[in-house]
Amino acid sequence: MGVKDGTRQFVRERAKYLCEYCHSPERSSSDRFTIDHLVPQSLGGSDEDKNLALALIRSHKSAYRVIRARAMNNFPVYYSLIVLL
To answer: In the CATH hierarchy, which top-level class contains the domain 5-84?
Structure first.
């Protein structure tokens, strides 16, 4: 279904238009940004704004690989999020 436009804009404003992983500015970057699920939907994450972050595509892919690897090795997901943030 995807994240609603209003929620997407709220997340962008909350992040002050910066990637929430690497803090790169959205407005002066030529790279693409996305709305990232902190806890992936595949692991039970929701579309609520508290589970969403503004992210560069490359930062999103790095974060997903770390969370997925830790989940597959039986690390709690919340531990993965603490390490990333």
So the answer is: mainly alpha
